[in-house]
Amino acid sequence: MLRCCVTAPERVPKFNPIFDILGQLDTEYFAARPRRLGESLHLFLLGVAQGFAGHGIAQQLVAESLACGAIKDYRMGQ
After folding, report:
1. Which of 14, 55, 65 is nearest to 74 (CA)?
2. Is the distance from CB of 2 to CB of 71 less than 8 angstroms?
3. Average pLDDT, stretch 14-42?
4. What is the mean pLDDT of residues 27-38?
5. Lesser CB count within 10 Å: N end or C end of the chain?
């Protein structure tokens, strides 16, 4: 099992415009749907290195993230 609360890696500067757009969408989405601490687990972005694609790694990361959320009593995954 993965450790819960793993920190994100350092940002690659060339992806900053993408993160800006995703951040704006995130802000707009949650402006209409206020979050309550400990209620939902929000998976913002997930990727697997190209050489490891097709091995079910992303699905396992999502499953482990949801399992960690369940341990912490989150009720929703988004």
Report:
1. 65
2. no
3. 83
4. 82
5. N
For residue 17, give its domain range.
13-77
Q: Is residue 19 part of a domain?
A: yes
Residue 51 DSSP label: G
Instruction: Provide the number of structural domains found in the chain.
Output: 1
In a domain, 40, yes or no: yes
- Report yes or no on 17 lying in a domain: yes
CA distance 76 to 78: 7
Nearest of 20, 24, 22 to residue 43 by alpha carbon: 22
pLDDT of residue 73: 84
Residue-level pLDDT at 9? 61
